[in-house]
Sequence to fold (143 residues):
Amino acid sequence: MIDFQPVIVAFACSYCAYTAADMAGVQGFAYPEGVKIVQVPCSGKVDSLHILRALQKGADGVMVAGCLEGDCHFRNGNRRAAQRVRYVQALLEDVGIGGQRVLMANMSAGQGAVFAATASHFWETIRALGQNPAKLAASRAAA
Fold:
């Protein structure tokens, strides 16, 4: 289990979180390479099915990153995203995968350090949890 390197899909809104991820690189703040960023127009465009599909396809964790609360470029997109994340967390708890595999994060475009710290902390959390149980079940079924 020590060589386990989690894969995290980070859905990042283009206005804030994606820019913060870019800013992290410009400012020299590193985060694990297992964090795969998917740029979306708004975190509110990330549906529950996108989160579940990422986990089904092999992600060990999913981070939805949007603008600061009350500062969404699409007014309420980050609030909708937060509701969906809470819904998926509850669903994952119910099926035994664990809701802590999904995270909602809010940041501004200039917070590169916040993006890097959040991604790194979440990566460590997922690493401690271990591999996605759905991925383990699929690999056992294929064998």
Observations:
- The chain has a mean pLDDT of 92.
